[in-house]
Design a protein that fits this description.
The protein is α/β, with parallel strands linked by helices. It is 28% helix and 16% strand. The chain has a seven-stranded mixed sheet, with helices on both faces. A hairpin with a 5-residue loop joins strand 5 and strand 6. Helix 5 crosses helix 6. The longest helix is centred in the N-terminal third of the chain and has 20 residues. The two termini are 26 Å apart.
Length: 222
């Protein structure tokens, strides 16, 4: 089976989801990031896998379910950090981020029988998933990140290496408030949607009401 690899930041105010501020406060943005990460990790935990790895920038929190190996992210740009995360894995590996809480076990269940790579394009021109039958870090180093052509360059790198690439469904990352609303509508029973509904954006009612950092389980359906 495939190793499932998640790259993520600890959801600390001011360090995550900064493009959500405004309209949300840094505390709300961190709360939404935590909910997105929780949904993502629980989906990964529910997906059959040979191994589950979290490449983490920061410290683990109560959002981390059991069964994950933790590796620390290295220093450097995102391309270097993604490459290093793959370097901690052997055999077929699928990498995803923490920004697509709408993922399902069905989307993450990949089979490398007739391909050497999987590529999951994102709506913003990047990618939300990258699978490698042989996790070669050199396939990521030097790819320009956080641009509208990141995905095209990364996929081109795979093709240029002679890999047979299977494309996955296109998904939307949560970067902006509009993204958050769209993604929440796609997974209305998830923790992310619940947390978003608890946040009042700045300007909506004069002040922002931060969402609870750790809602009780009964408030989190699914």
């Amino acid at each position: 089976m495939t190793t499932l690899l998640v790259i993520a930041k600890e959801p600390v105010p001011g360090r995550v989801k900064t493009r959500l501020t405004p309209p949300f406060t840094p505390e709300q943005a961190a709360s939404l990031a935590e909910a997105s990460l929780t949904d993502t990790l629980r989906t990964v935990a529910a997906t059959p896998a040979a191994r589950r790895v979290l490449a983490l920038d920061g410290a683990p929190g109560p959002w981390l379910p059991p069964g994950f190996d933790i590796v620390r992210q290295c220093a450097g740009g995102l391309d270097e950090r993604l490459a290093d995360a793959f370097a901690h894995c052997t055999g077929p590996t699928l990498l995803i981020g923490m920004d697509t809480p709408q993922v399902t076990p069905e989307l993450l269940s990949v089979d490398f029988a007739d391909c050497e790579a999987y590529f999951g394009p994102a709506e913003d021109g990047g990618f939300w998933a990258l699978g490698l039958a042989d996790p070669d870090p050199g396939l990521l180093r030097g790819v320009p990140m956080s641009t509208s052509w990141t995905g095209a360059v990364q996929r081109g790198r795979l093709v240029a290496a002679g890999l047979r690439v299977r494309d996955m469904v296109r998904l939307r990352d949560v970067d902006t408030a509009r993204d958050a609303q769209t993604v929440a509508s796609l997974a209305p029973h998830g923790r992310f949607a619940t947390r978003l509904a608890q946040c009042t954006p700045l300007g909506a009612r004069g002040t922002a009401r931060p969402a609870p950092t750790h809602p009780q389980p009964e408030n989190l359906p699914r």
